[in-house]
Design a protein that fits this description.
By secondary structure, the protein is α+β, with helices and mostly antiparallel strands. It has 11 helices and 8 strands. An 8-stranded antiparallel beta barrel has the order 1-2-3-4-5-6-7-8. 35% of the residues are buried. It comes from Myxococcus virescens.
Length: 333
């Protein structure tokens, strides 16, 4: 069991700052006696659904999928309460050339007893970003409603069923048949629509199988290619995502190139990433803060700014009429 952490003079400056923020919040009236009673499921703005349980005096949270592509029931949060402050650690995924893909960060998570919201601030290393943190610094977890909590176990069960079905399937046709039979909802919505729903909910493994089924019916569905590539990236299957998205380059859809640029970046090939991002712009893609593209857009934000600036300069040069060169027969003074 984790030893109960205490704020003391030898704690790193970042934790001292968090400790000071916690003390201020407690002093402002949030503190109360005893550990709080937390909801069983929480929803992070970007993190996805986190299921919480108490193990003795320790709170443990697990998550599946999400922007980090966590394996089923990955432990992402643990710690002990001191009044309304959870002292422990949080698992973060990171982006950046010299950043650990996943790292357990020490955390002081403040619990607000009025609304049940849990918040924590982080300071990542220079050059590192995390798609699960707002502005690469804030983690915000809100308790799910009872209806939403009831849906979460069903999604987890669907993910388990889909994983088991895929492991025992022989060939793509068998896998697609088991997805159609085991996951349900096929009579209500198309595989493409259900894949997009599951992907938005952070269930990348389930979404991947729906997109595979959609492509088995329509191999030229650009939307299914994008969804499958995004699911594979969420599951950290980067090499397969690159192959999926490369196969869709000729479908004439700009966001295929956007996600391929992100896949190349994850692969460590920045030159190809910038080239693919430029093609996305040439085919009409523009950053618009779309929720479905938030992870890729955030990861590529520096190159997006560079290419936007370059294209603006090119448009400006085209608008300025060229001055005739001086020479024989030229009447321009």
């Amino acid at each position: 069991m984790m030893e109960r952490a205490r704020i003391h003079p030898h704690m790193p400056p970042s934790l001292l700052n968090k400790g000071l923020a916690t003390v201020l919040s407690v002093a402002s009236g949030l503190a109360w006696a005893g550990p709080p009673t937390v909801s069983s499921s929480y929803q992070g703005d970007s993190y996805g659904v986190v299921s919480l349980r108490m193990q003795g005096d320790q709170l443990v949270g697990v998550a599946t999928g999400g922007p980090c592509g966590f394996e089923p029931d990955t432990e992402v949060l643990s710690g002990e309460f001191q009044d309304n402050v959870l002292v422990g650690q949080v698992l973060l995924c990171q982006l950046g050339p010299h950043c650990e893909p996943r790292v357990n960060q020490p955390a002081l998570v403040v619990f607000n007893p009025d609304d049940g919201v849990m918040t924590a601030l982080f300071r990542l290393k220079d050059g590192c970003r995390s798609p699960v943190l707002k502005n690469d610094s804030l983690l915000l977890l809100r308790p799910l409603s009872r209806d939403a909590e009831a849906v979460a176990p069903a999604r987890a069960a669907s993910a388990t069923t889909a994983t088991a079905a895929s492991a025992t399937a022989e060939g793509a046709n068998s896998s697609a048949a088991q997805v159609a039979a085991g996951l349900g909802r096929q009579g209500e919505v198309s595989p493409l629509e259900e894949g997009q729903r599951q992907l938005a909910a952070g269930n990348a493994g389930v979404a991947q199988r729906h997109f595979e089924l959609a492509l088995s019916k329509d191999p030229r569905s650009a939307a299914a290619v994008v969804g499958l590539g995004a699911s594979q990236l969420m599951l950290n299957d980067v090499s397969r995502a690159v192959k999926t998205l490369e196969a869709g380059r000729g479908l004439g859809r700009a966001d295929v190139h956007l996600w391929l640029a992100y896949a190349y970046q994850r692969e460590g090939n920045r030159n190809r990433s910038r080239e693919s991002l430029r093609k996305a712009f040439e085919q009409g893609w523009m950053p618009a803060g779309r929720a479905a593209e938030a992870v890729a857009e955030q990861a590529l934000r520096e190159d997006i700014k560079d290419i936007e600036t370059l294209m603006q300069q090119q448009r400006t040069r085209k608008r300025v009429p060229a001055r005739p060169s001086a020479g024989v027969g030229n009447t321009t003074p």
